[in-house]
Amino acid sequence: MAIEDASILMVFILFISFICTFIIFYKTKVLCRCKICHAYITSSWSFEFDNLCDWYTHLLQNSPTKTIHIHVLHNTITSDHQNVEYMLKTRFENYPKGKGFSAILGDFLGRGIFNVDGEYWRFQRKMASLELGKMSIKSHAYEVVNYEIDHRLIPLISAFSRKEHGVLDFQDVFRRFSFDVICKFSFGYDPKCLHESLPMSELAIAFDLASQLSAQRAMTTSPLVWKIKRLFNVGSEKRLKESIKMVNKFAQEVIRQRNKLGCCSNHEDLLSRFMDKTKDPIYLRDIVISFLLAGRDTVASSLTGLFWLLAQQPEVVAAIRAEALMATQHESLTSLEQLHQLHYLQAVVYEGMRLFPPIQFNSKFCQLDDTLPDGTFIKKGTRVTYHSYAMGRMETIWGPDCLVFKPERWLKDGVFYQETPFMYPVFQAGYRMCLGKEMALVELKSVILSLLQRFDIELAHPSRAPRFSPGLTATFRDGLPVRVSERRGQTLPKPHVSTS
Ligand code: HEM
């Protein structure tokens, strides 16, 4: 009888799989044989390009409208800044993240700000922008960042620089650094990932796995593929479920502990601030996990791209050092205000992220039939993506030297200047622009300055061009192996941090 039951189940699963495969083929037009779709399905683009984003950039550069459509993905991709402004501002309501996106990240992020539209989004946006706008939280962020730099990052790299022939993976270091910072900032919890022994944090591992596997869902030609795997709790979906459980358990425990203390006023972290606004523990968990995702990999990815570029630009490194010396009159950098005066450094950061945006593309789902400013018709339900990576490499936007790393393009009479964020949607733009932009800039500038003031950094494999791993955020597949040496004659001023 048991064997009979198993056979019936097998037949049933096979039948369901057959129906689903048929629907997938039908719905996704997998049979489309146009040149672009064929190259996508067979991955033949990879004969010519290292990365999918490079192939998209090539297609977009060569499209007369700077917009393309990948039929098998139901995806219109644009690099036209007027289209970007239209989606993110003019017709914002017609281009929500949509149910498709929420479903992909829903298990991991729940109702967190990253994953919702409408009222849930508006409430969190208002609450978060009020909190993040306060001077006290900015000062807190600055203190958290500087503590991590002075007590972990510098000692770790300094110890490493004394080893002979040592090669250090800067990408790994930056991931550890940014995880410590965002956990302390969001939860008031210190995972100590950047401790000198470089411990493995269970939370960081579970968090990485959950975001990686969630991103994999988005790469299937139809959501039915991962939905079936989730239904039967098999393969990657089983691992995703386990990693999410671990992250949730951790977040809930922090919230429980904080509730037990019964008082939030003497805590500076984001969670404590949000606890004043809502008591729902699941909602609080979702909000904070979204912040971890928003602020961790993006910062690590920006630093990795920036240091890959800087290691090949000695004159830019010299200019950063010279500007800092001028601004601080040879003392250590001691305040947020001093950091804001470093216009060249800000230009370097923007220029680095132009060529290596941490979030390479961003998608919305069109609600009602529409036509973009460049004349492209968008059918209701189509996924519409703006491609920040391609936009950073467009001659039509940046001129013939678009592939050259040139911070000066961001300066007007020595002062940092940005024309319109829609040409550079690295932090998105319009109504859903990144809420952590200021904090991220402070973090990036502080790390760059601290490291360049103390160390000379060179790539271990200078001729190796970056190849990216698939994921929500750009990650160098081979890491960023570097050699570091302490700069001679550098007296290190005692760290002194004031937030005045
Ligand atoms: C270099 C670092 C960063 C980059 C490049 C970046 C970029 C972005 C982008 C492209 C979005 C839009 C995402 C989407 O809607 O799908 C976004 C949203 C957001 N970011 Fe960042 N981000 C960075 C750092 C941070 C940090 C450190 C925080 C937190 C402290 C943060 C908090 C947020 C939040 C809360 C949103 C959601 C805004 C909304 O939906 O209204 N980000 N960011």
UniProtKB/TrEMBL annotation:
Heme binds at C434. GO terms for molecular function: heme binding; iron ion binding; monooxygenase activity; oxidoreductase activity, acting on paired donors, with incorporation or reduction of molecular oxygen. Pfam families: p450. Keywords: Heme, Iron, Membrane, Metal-binding, Oxidoreductase, Transmembrane, Transmembrane helix. Its cofactor is heme. Belongs to the cytochrome P450 family. This is Cytochrome P450. The lineage of its organism: Eukaryota, Viridiplantae, Streptophyta, Embryophyta, Tracheophyta.
